[in-house]
Structures are given as structure tokens and as C-alpha cells.
Write a structure and sequence with these properties.
α3 (200-210) runs parallel beside α6. This protein has 401 residues and is of the alpha/beta class. Helices cover 17% and strands 32% of the residues. It folds into 4 domains: 6-22 and 172-313, MoaB/Mog-like domain (Molybdenum Cofactor Biosythetic Enzyme, Chain A), CATH 3.40.980; 23-44 and 149-170, Molybdopterin biosynthesis moea protein, domain 2, CATH 3.90.105; 51-132, Molybdopterin biosynthesis moeA protein, domain 3 (Beta Complex); 321-396, Beta Barrel (Beta-clip). The chain is elongated and about 95 Å long. A hairpin with a 2-residue loop joins β24 and β25 (351-355). It has helices spanning 6-15, 153-161, 200-210, 225-238, 256-261, 295-313; strands at residues 23-27, 40-41, 51-52, 56-59, 68-75, 89-93, 105-108, 112-115, 118-121, 131-132, 143-145, 166-170, 174-180, 184-185, 196-197, 214-221, 241-245, 264-268, 272-273, 279-283, 286-291, 321-327, 331-333, 338-348, 351-355, 375-379, 384-386, 391-396. The strands form 8 sheets. Strands 7-4-6-5-9-8 form a 6-stranded mixed sheet, with no helix packed on it. It is built from 6 helices and 28 strands. The structure holds adenosine monophosphate and magnesium ion (MG). Magnesium ion is lined by residues 181, 246-247, 251, 253, 293.
Length: 401
Amino acid sequence: MAHISYSKSIEILKANLPQHKGSETLFLGEAVGRILAEDVVAPYDNPYHPTASMDGYGVRYRDLEKGELKIVGENPAGKFQIRKIGEGEAVKTFTGSFMAEGADTLLPFENVKVEGEKLKIVEPVSQGFSVRPVGEDFKKGEVVIKKGTPLREGELGVLASLGKSVVKVVKRPKIAILSTGKELVDIDSPFQPGEIRSSNNYTLTFLAGRLGYQVENLGLLPDDKKEIEKRIKEALEENDIVVTTGGVSVGDYDFVKEITGSYQLLFHGVNIKPGQWVMVAKAGGKFIVSLPGFPYSSFVTFLLYVVPIADRLGGGLESIKEVTAKLGEPFEKKFKKYQFVAVNIHWTPSGLVVDTRGKKQGSSGILTNLIGCKGLMALPEGIYRLERGEEVKLLTFDRVI
Ligand code: AMP
Ligand code: MG
């Protein structure tokens, strides 16, 4: 199968993105970072009665011209003792206390002088001063938080103020990560000459976890077709996406490509650097994404092809933001393919600036370029030089929620 262009691969991927996974109900404390699966409608106005927003005296605005009023009692916060005032009367009212009926304005302590029961007005205020009107924060029947909103502290605080201790959220995508290659040894295994310590299954598991997906590291398998086939099949039963690394190019032992290719293949081979041998296939409603083995290739292709599927399953998360940045120093693009370059990002007063200072040039085996890396510069096809100050497309993957 001939390689397709990057834009074509994204077009195919987008046309095949899944539905979200359905919802589950969680306690508020477990819901941070999740996507709201229902509209949250306010069951009452907040505040549900005019409320003081400062400490002072609740008065009738039109009485201010009298210059002196009579204090008839007090309404401490949480207690509504004086329900109503009449002409010339004032009620001591604290921040958060209900305003007595008739009291439409709050005179702060700083604006008055108290002599026994007498309240002398030193400095008047405008009508309605420091009174929170009914429904200031939200009104009964209003959709306060829309379905599809990521739940952060603000949203969860609002849910708490609504008295909601449980909330319906979209289920998290489940991803399994399997690394293949007979040369691979795991983190704590003895190491023989010619062998390579596997990092892909760790890098990708940690990335998936940080992005909020449910992820399982399935470890390593040698290039054994039957074994890999069986493991993928099993993993598909439990997961929404099975991600493999290695075995998709043109080597004698690259069996993964045959296995993944036996499912509903969307594409195999994209004109990108790194990661040209990436494969995406559907298996019923599930996905198999087979990434090339080189550490930098598997990382980039995970971002490009696994993250969009997982984000959609997760209810519309946006793990990758496409923004424009300025180049901090010239860059020579030496490869024809659409290229993704690990960059340093600087937040400057004049916007985002990127550079490749300290990054190594070489094969896609260089994983250390990902140290401190929060974004990839996306450079369309062609060989060219970019000057300092030129605008470039930047894919950032620094999502917290
Ligand atoms: P492959 O795509 O299977 O041809 O693998 C290409 C190269 O990527 C291998 O020779 C290894 O150097 C490297 N590689 C493959 N799998 C891993 C892995 N799990 N962790 C680190 N490096 C790997
Ligand atoms: Mg291999």
C-alpha cells in the first residue's frame, strides 16, 4: 500500500472517529478532569433571597435623605430574624445575611456612625448598594454547566454549591499498550549484547495516563506472530484501543503489520517523519493502532493517531492544541516529508516562541529530545529554511485537564 499524505491520514481518521463511551456516575471527589455527560440545571435561584455582600445596615434607599435612622435589630449570617423594616428603620446586616423586606440598600459600617439605637448617615450610597439580587449567580432552570464541559475546580465548586454530590461523566477510554520485538528487554531484566531496553511501553503508558485515559501496560512480546495475534485479540476484548509498537515496517520479522492488516485497515504508511509506517485499523467498534518501534516515532504517532481517537471516546477531551508560535532561531528542514520536530516552548510577553536548542539531530531513536518537551513543531512537506521570527504550527500536548 502506497504511503498517503498526512492530511489524507487525518481526514480518514476523522471520518472514522468513534462515539463517546457512555456515562457513569461519580462522587464529586472522583470527577476532577472528567467530561460532564449531562446538562446541569439549577433547581433554584442563587442567591434565593436578596443578600448583603458587605457588613453594614439594611435600609430603604429613599430614607437616606433623613440623615438619621433607627436600628431595629440585626440579621446575623444564616439567621433571618428581622424579616421586614418600615419607614426610617435600619437592620444591622452582615455579609451573606438576608436583607429584610423593604431594605433595598446596604449602608456599610464605614459609612455610618452609631449612637445607641441611632444610625447617623455619614456618607450615602447608591440605590441597591452591596445587595446581591436573587439569581445573581444562577437562576432557577438555567443550564449552569453544559454537557461536554471538562470538570475542573470551578465547575466542581458550582456543583457543590448546587448540592450535587454525584455527577454523570463520560467513561474514560481504555487503552492497552504492547511492545513487540525480539531484541527488547524490560526495565529490570538482564541485558545481553545486541538487546535493547524497551522504553516505548513505558513512555506511552505514562503519556496516556497523564492525559486521563485508563491504560494498561501489557509489556513485551517477541516477534512471534501467533503470540502477538493472540495478545491483541485478548486485549481487544478488554479495551477500546490496542496500541502496539514495532513490527510494522519492511523487516523479515515485522509480523504486526500482517496481524493489524487483517482487521479493517484504515491506512498503513503515511508520508511523515517520524513514524511513516504507522497503521490504524478498526476492529468492530474498537481500534488497533500499530506504531513503529523507534521511541521518537512511536511517541509522535501516538499523539497524532491514538490521542484523537481516545479524546473522542472520552467525550471530547482536547489533549492536543494546535497553536501558532514564532521561531526563536532559524531552522533547516532537510526532509521532504511532513515533519514533526520536538521543540522547546518559551512563553514570552509577545507570545509563544519555539526553538530546538539542545535537541539532537539524528535518527528517530533519540528519545532524550522529549525531555522537557511539551510540543511538536509541525512542518508541512518540502525542503526549506525557516528564519527566526517566522510563524510555525505548534502541536502542544501539555493538557492538565
Ligand atoms: P521496528 O519498528 O520493530 O523495526 O523497531 C525499530 C527499532 O526501534 C528497533 O530496532 C529498536 O531499536 C527500537 N525499538 C523497538 N521497540 C522498542 C521499544 N519498545 N522501546 C525502545 N526501542 C524500541
Ligand atoms: Mg522489530
